[in-house]
User: Which sequence fits this backbone?
C-alpha cells in the first residue's frame, strides 16, 4: 500500500503516472462537505504536461497489456476486488468524508465497486467474436473484438468509487490502458482505486490518474490524438463540448449526462411502496444522482393524500453528519451547490407551486452544505422545477388527470435517463414501458439504482446513444476485426 505524506493531518496525493506518485508544486484541498473545516486530502494540480506524460505511459503500457492473456487480466481484477472488500470500511469512510453521502451508502458503494470488478474479470473469458460460414467452404471467417488503445475517462464526484471502477474495470479487462481524470470535488477514492490496482499486480502505466482543473487536465485528455476514446459522466454542458471535440478528431465517445426523472403514481398504486420508493429515489445521496427522482407525477384524485404521506415520511429523515450511522441524509457536495439550490427554492416559492416543507439550511448544521429535504406540490410541468435538473434533495409533485397526461408530462423534458411508474394495472405498466422516453424503466421501484450486468444510459439529452456497464461495455471498449483465412494454394 502506498504511503502518502501528511499535511495538516491529511494525505498529499500526487498524480499517479506510470506507477509513480508524481507531485506538483501547487495542490488543491478536498474538504468534507459536512464540515468545511476538515481537509480530507491535498491533491495535485495537474495540467496538460501531466496528461501528456500519462498518455505516453499508457501508450507504452498498451503494447504489452493488450497482449496479456485474458486470465492474467481477470486475476488482477479478482485480486483488486478482494482488496476493495478488505478495505471497504476505510474506503466507505473516505468516500463519505469527501462526498457527503451516508456511511451506509459509502461502504455499499465500495462493495458495489468490488462486484463490478468481479463481473468484468468474468467477462474477460466470455466469447469475444463470431465465426461465420463463407461463400468458399474452405475459407474461415471470423470476427474478434480487440481493444481500442489508450482511453480517457472523466468521472463525476457523486459516485467517487463506483463510476471510476465501472469505467476503468471494463477498459482494462478488454486490454485498453487508461488515463483518468476524477472530479476535483471528490477525487480521493479514485486514488485509492489506483493504489488497489497496483497492489493487485496491475503493471505500471496501465492505469494513470491525473487530478486538476477540467480546463487543463480534461481538455488535454480530450484533445490528445493518441486517446482513442473518451467516456464521460457529468453535466450536459461539458458533455456536449466533449462530444464536439471528440467528433472533430474522430475519437469514440460515450456520454452519461443529466436526468429529470419522473415517478408516475397512479390511483391504484400500493401507497406504502410508492411513498417509500419515491422518497428513496429523491433523497438518497441527498438527491445527487443523475438517476434521482425529481418529479412525482400523481393522479389528481390521490395527489393530496400522496403529498401528505410524502411529507410525513420526509419529516422522519434524519439529516446530519453522514459518518453517524443514524443519519439518513447528508449534505450537498459543497456550499456553492447548496446556495444554488436555495436560490431555485426561493424562486419557486414565487411561482404557483406550493411549498410543502424543507428547503432550509439548518443552523445546527451550519458547518456543512446541508439543505433539508424539500417538497413542493402543484408544480406545473412547464415551470423550471418541472423541467430543470436541480441535483439536490428536492421533489416536485405534479398532479395530472389521467394516464395520457401523465405520459405527456413524463416525456416533456429534454432528458430521458430513468423513469418509474407505481401501479397494479398491468396494462398501464406495459404501456408505460413502451411509451416512456427513458433508457432505464422501473415498474414499482425507484428511478435510481443501476445493476452492473445491465446496459445503463439514457434517451434524449441524457446520453449519447451509448450505454455503459454489462455487455454494452464490450461494445464501447473494443473494436471489431473481421478476419478472412484461406489455405495456401500449395
Ligand atoms: C445509480 O443510480 O445507482 O452519475 C447509478 C449518476 C449515474 C449513476 C447512477 N451515472 O448519478
Assistant:
Amino acid at each position: 500500500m502506498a504511503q502518502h505524506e501528511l499535511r495538516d493531518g491529511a494525505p498529499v496525493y500526487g498524480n499517479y503516472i506510470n506507477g509513480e506518485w508524481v507531485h506538483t508544486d501547487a495542490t488543491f484541498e478536498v474538504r468534507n462537505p459536512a464540515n468545511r473545516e476538515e481537509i480530507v486530502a491535498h491533491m495535485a494540480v495537474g495540467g496538460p504536461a501531466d496528461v501528456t506524460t500519462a498518455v505516453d505511459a499508457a501508450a507504452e503500457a498498451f503494447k504489452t497489456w493488450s497482449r496479456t492473456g485474458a486470465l492474467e487480466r481477470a486475476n488482477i481484477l479478482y485480486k483488486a476486488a478482494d482488496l476493495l472488500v478488505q478495505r471497504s470500511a476505510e474506503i466507505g469512510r473516505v468516500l463519505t468524508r469527501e462526498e457527503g453521502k451516508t456511511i451506509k451508502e459509502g461502504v455499499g458503494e465500495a462493495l458495489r465497486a468490488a462486484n463490478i470488478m468481479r463481473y468484468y474479470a468474468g467477462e474477460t473469458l466470455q466469447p469475444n467474436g463470431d465465426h461465420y460460414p463463407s461463400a468458399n467452404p474452405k475459407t474461415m471467417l471470423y470476427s474478434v473484438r480487440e481493444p481500442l488503445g489508450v482511453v480517457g475517462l472523466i468521472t463525476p464526484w457523486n459516485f467517487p468509487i463506483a463510476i471510476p471502477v465501472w469505467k476503468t474495470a471494463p477498459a482494462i479487462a478488454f486490454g485498453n490502458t487508461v488515463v483518468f481524470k476524477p472530479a476535483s470535488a471528490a477525487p480521493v477514492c479514485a486514488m485509492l482505486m489506483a493504489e488497489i490496482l497496483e497492489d493487485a499486480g496491475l503493471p505500471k502505466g496501465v492505469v494513470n490518474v491525473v487530478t486538476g482543473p477540467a480546463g487543463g487536465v480534461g481538455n488535454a485528455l480530450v484533445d490528445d490524438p493518441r486517446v482513442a476514446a473518451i467516456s464521460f459522466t457529468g453535466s450536459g454542458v461539458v458533455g456536449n463540448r466533449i462530444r464536439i471535440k471528440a467528433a472533430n478528431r474522430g475519437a469514440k465517445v460515450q456520454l452519461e449526462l443529466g436526468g429529470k426523472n419522473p415517478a408516475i403514481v397512479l390511483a391504484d398504486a400500493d401507497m406504502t411502496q410508492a411513498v417509500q420508493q419515491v422518497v428513496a429515489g429523491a433523497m438518497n445521496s441527498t438527491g445527487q444522482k443523475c438517476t434521482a427522482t425529481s418529479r412525482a407525477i400523481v393522479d389528481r384524485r390521490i395527489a393530496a393524500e400522496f403529498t401528505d404521506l410524502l411529507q410525513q415520511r420526509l419529516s422522519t429523515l434524519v439529516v446530519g453528519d453522514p459518518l453517524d450511522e443514524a443519519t439518513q441524509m447528508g449534505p450537498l457536495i459543497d456550499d456553492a451547490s447548496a446556495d444554488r439550490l436555495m436560490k431555485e427554492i426561493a424562486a419557486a416559492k414565487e411561482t404557483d407551486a406550493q411549498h410543502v416543507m424543507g428547503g432550509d439550511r439548518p443552523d445546527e448544521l451550519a458547518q456543512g452544505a446541508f439543505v433539508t429535504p424539500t417538497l413542493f406540490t402543484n408544480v406545473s410541468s412547464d415551470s423550471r422545477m418541472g423541467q430543470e435538473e436541480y441535483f439536490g434533495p428536492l421533489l416536485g409533485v405534479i398532479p395530472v388527470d389521467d394516464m395520457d397526461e401523465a405520459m405527456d408530462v413524463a416525456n416533456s423534458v429534454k432528458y430521458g435517463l430513468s423513469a418509474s411508474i407505481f401501479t397494479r394495472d398491468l396494462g398501464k405498466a406495459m404501456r408505460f414501458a413502451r411509451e416512456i422516453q427513458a433508457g432505464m424503466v422501473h415498474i414499482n421501484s425507484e428511478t435510481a439504482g443501476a445493476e452492473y450486468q445491465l446496459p445503463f444510459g439514457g434517451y434524449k439529452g441524457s446520453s449519447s446513444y451509448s450505454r455503459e456497464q454489462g455487455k454494452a461495455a464490450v461494445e464501447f471498449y473494443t473494436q471489431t476485426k473481421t478476419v478472412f483465412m484461406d489455405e495456401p494454394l500449395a
About this structure: The chain has a mean pLDDT of 97. The longest strand covers residues 35-44. The radius of gyration is 23 Å. The pocket of 2-aminohexanedioic acid is lined by residues 156, 158-159, 233, 256, 289-291, 448-450 (CB under 6 Å).
